[in-house]
Write a structure and sequence with these properties.
single chain; YnbE; mainly alpha; plasmid; elongated
Length: 84
């Protein structure tokens, strides 16, 4: 039985040494280099908020001018309507 305990210790020591060697060989390498080509930033931005506000204002004006055209009652005191 003494022989198996000793062989387990040797095997454990060998595994630990092998694991340490494997982890030591896998060290990460980071390289920082300047790019060959200039950096290009593409700024294709859609600006639609201003256009949307203008369309909403025009639509409100059109509804206020002729509510019957949109199937609304022509009451000038209606909610959200403008007074002429």
């Amino acid at each position: 039985m003494r022989h198996t305990v000793r062989s387990r210790r040797v095997l454990t020591a060998a595994l630990i040494a092998g694991l340490a060697a494997a982890l030591g060989a896998c060290t990460p390498t980071v390289k920082v280099e300047a790019p060959d080509k200039p950096i290009e930033i593409n700024l294709n931005i859609r600006i639609e908020q201003e256009v949307r506000v203008k369309v909403e204002r025009d639509l409100e004006k059109a509804i206020a001018d002729d509510p019957a055209l949109f199937g609304l009652p022509s009451d000038s005191g209606a909610k959200g309507g403008r007074k002429p």
